[in-house]
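Bumping with the actual sequence this time:
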Amino acid sequence: MPNHPLIVRLGRTRLFTRIAPHLLPACDLAVHRLTRGRLLPSRLFITTVILHTTGHRTGTTRTTPLCAHHSPDGSWLVIASNFGKPRHPAWSTNLLHTPTARITTGRHSHDVTARLLSPEEKATHRHRILAALPVYDVYAARATRDIRIFHLTPRP
């Protein structure tokens, strides 16, 4: 799915990066739940999956909608940009502690194993990173941290 030009344009603004982290995930999850998995509003603009991780402190399931890039081999890349904020998102810390997770795409769920990409692998997969998150460079410049990128591989 090509990225919507509106998202590319809006995603660069500071107003979007202030409001979006509070509004978009809650809206996506509520609509996804109400439509029983048929609709995820973010998918109208960008490829989005729902990631189910295990909280590293609580052990409870955490659910987060994320932009992602799907590879022909069935794997996914997810970017822990946190909209360019200085802190890593909680879901990425959860994956570091418990790399087994589940992703939901539409009405289908898949068990996956997450692996943090090295800087060299990030360079190799740059085209996929930009396909998943076209404003990656803007967020990386704002973040003042190394943005984590995970490769999610399907588990049998």
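The tokens above came from a reply further down the thread. The longest helix spans residues 14-34.
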